[in-house]
Amino acid sequence: MANSTRNQSDIEYLLSIKSVRETNSFTLKALLENKLTNFDVDISKLDNVVKYVSETITSSYPTKESLLTIPVHGRYQHFEVGGNPRLTNLISEWSKSGLTDYEICKRTLDLFVVSVLIDAGAGNEWKFDENGTTFNRSEGIAVASFHMFVNGDFSNDESSPYQVNGLKLANYSPELLEKGFQITDNNKLYGFDGRLNLIRKIGNILESKKRIFGQDFRPGNMLDYLIALPTCEKISEIGYKLNLEDLWTTLMKGLHDIWPKDSTRTVVDGFSLGDAWKLKLNDSIVTFHKLTQWLTYSLLLPLRKFGHLEIYNTELLTGLPEYRNGGVFVDLGLLTLKEEAVQRGLELSKESKTDQGIPSFTAIDDVIVEWRSSTIVLLDYILPRVNDYLKITGTEYQLILPQLIEAGSWPSGRRIAASLRPKTSGPPINLISDGTVF
Predict the structure, then answer these.
(1) Residue 306 falls within a domain, yes or no?
(2) Which PANTHER family match (predicted)?
(3) Which of 73, 127, 347, 368 supports an S-S bond with 134, CB 3.0-4.6 Å?
(4) Is residue 5 part of a domain?
(5) pLDDT, greater one: 197 or 66
(6) What is the span of the domain harbouring residue 38?
(7) Is there a domain that residue 64 lies in?
């Protein structure tokens, strides 16, 4: 019984947001001492990384005043890619039609949840065409999912297209997903089957968690649940104050069961830990929970703006361990994959018929786990150094981590990838994805 209690406590900890930064902290010491398992570290390249990321920031935000306008990293910006205010215009239409902020919040939560959870890597080939303009990867998935939402592809009520219902998702057809993502023999999407199964799982979970997602099984109904929490404090006629950990726990309780429970996943007492993996470096489990973190970051804006929720303790969130943020450290030479790992990765690229000049690995491979762990600790490590470089430390302009990701590390990863690999703009290390990781 005691062992069972301990394991339950371990599971609860490893699902917590605090575990992410804490379980990965060991990696920084090993990295700074050049003792990683799969990468050689050239710490002399750190200054160049800081300079490159800082210049990326100032290219879009050239003045100190403009730094104040950098949004928190989130899905909203992807819906507006290409300078097209798709979601802003849609929300404006809703508002003009008399829709309340509360219902606008619910609708945006519906859209954000489904769009973020299917936002694992799309691969180098796939693209989405919007009136002659093409978008790929995460931004392409955002635009595709936006149009699917507007078309009512996630709703089971033809008279109310702007919603997401569990019943519709649970029975989602491959044909509808193919149409929505414009998939053809010449426009293949990485992890199609995994993504389709994920959509169906989301539907099943929405239906099974009525307490959180309500009678019509909508993600947006979590707004009712959050406001009803005893720890949610009413601070004005329409305003509330909520601990980020309560939002995190709600998302974990509500959505955790969608993650695969196969032999590749880390399981404790039959319970899948989701995006958590064994790291060889210190022979322990490290947690990432990337998609849940990406979702949490993304929900902050609609919850604050339309749900009138003041959310505190957001600093518990970490940098996102995905290929754009991680790629900048590899492409600028701070991390270099060791030769044995390179050869092993190139062999898998050959077998899987992916880009044969780029080493490939599965999510469970220690290369990917160590790369992602390094990404988390390095983003924390460069944040104060970027603020120092921009001469804004201790001022009102000082950047917080989600702003560094939004304006610095993520676009830097994309920029250097486009420069070094213009044909694909893909990452320096390829993930063989099942559509559920990153």
Answers:
(1) no
(2) PROTEIN URG3 (PTHR31687:SF3), PTHR31687
(3) 127
(4) no
(5) 66
(6) 14-72+270-288+316-437
(7) yes
For strands 360-362 and 430-432, give the pairing: parallel
Label residue 125 left, alpha or beta by phi (over 0 means left) and psi (-120 to 50 means alpha). alpha
410 within domain boundaries: yes
The predicted structure's pLDDT at residue 2 = 42
Token readout for 85 is 């205010």
Residues 143, 149: Cα–Cα separation, whole Å: 10
| Three-class HEC string of the chain | CHHHHHHHHHHHHHCCCHHHHHHHHHHHHHHHCCCCCCEEECHHHHHHHHHHHHHHHHHHCCCHHHHCCCCCCCHHHHHCHHHCCHHHHHHHHHHHCCCCHHHHHHHHHHHHHHHHHCCCCCCCCCEEEECCEEEEHHHHHHHHHHHHHHCCCCCCCCCCCCCCCHHHHHCCCHHHHHHHCCCECCECCCCHHHHHHHHHHHHHHHHHCHHHHCCCCCHHHHHHHHHHCCCCEECCCCCEEEEHHHHHHHHHHHHHHHCCCCCCCCEECCEECCCEEEECCCCEEEECCHHHHHHHHHHHHHHHHCCCEEEECHHHCCCCCCHHHHHHHHHCCCEEECHHHHHHHHHHHHHHCCCCCCCEEECCCHHHHHHHHHHHHHHHHHHHHHHHHCCCCCCCCCCCHHHHHHHHHHHHHHHHHHHHCCCCCCCCCEEECCCCCC
Residue whose token pair is 């406001």: 227
pLDDT digits (tens, 9 = 90+) for 291-307: 899 999 999 999 999 99
* Domains identified in the chain, total number: 1
**Site of tokens 């039609």:** 97
Separation between Cα atoms, residue 123 and residue 433, nearest integer Å: 8
Over the stretch 208-246, which tens digit does the pLDDT of each residue have?
999 999 999 999 999 999 999 999 999 999 999 999 999
What angle in degrees, to the nearest 10, is found between the helix axes of 366-389 and 46-60?
A: 70
Which tokens go with 346? 């190139």
Which residue bears the tokens 């935000």? 61
Task: Tell me the pLDDT band of 99, cut-offs 50, 70 and 90.
Answer: very high
132 CB contacts (<8 Å, ≥6 apart)? none
